[in-house]
User: Fold this.
Amino acid sequence: MIKINLLPFRTARKKENVRRQLSILITSLFLVFILLIYYNIKLSGQLKEIKSKVETSKTENEKYEKINNEIKEIKGKLEVLNAKMDVIKTLETNRYEPVRLMDAMTSLVIPKRMWFVSLDGRGNSVNISGIAVDNQTVADFMTRLERSELFETVNLKTLKQNVVNKAIFKSFDISCSKPVKKEEKKEEKKADKKAAKSKAKQ
Assistant:
């Protein structure tokens, strides 16, 4: 009977398998290493791109902030100019107001029965002091004031007896309020809103 020794063949086959497995492992590790390098390069590129976008965004934000600050400054200057223009318009409107008031009062006065002592107009209120021959004259003058539509309210503050050269007269003080214009009402509402906002902030 012939006996064949297979140990050297098996040993050689095992060595070949080990070599093959080592070569596969080395190849796999090399491929993994290459893939890691590729992803690292790719991620570095993405990171650089993101950093570039962040820097661009920061630069744009700084530009927008400067523009916003300039716009706020311009708005503030415009508000100051508008306020000055409103003051000028008010002054121009009120420039001839005393003349108009005196002209209106001249047409409302009752001739030879009364005369003015003083006429004081401040804002929307007018105070009239005068002397009349009797109470009826004062009443007629107040009726004329009310019908003139120059004033919203006409109130008699005082009515006293006054003796001049042994003649008895009636000295009177009348307060009148002018009608508030729509623009003035709007300004008052705005002022009230601003005051309410400032109180709320406090």
Q: What stands out?
A: The chain has a mean pLDDT of 80. The chain has two domains: 8-95, 97-181. Helices lie at 7-95, 97-108, 135-147, 182-201. The beta strands are 114-122, 125-132, 153-164, 167-177.
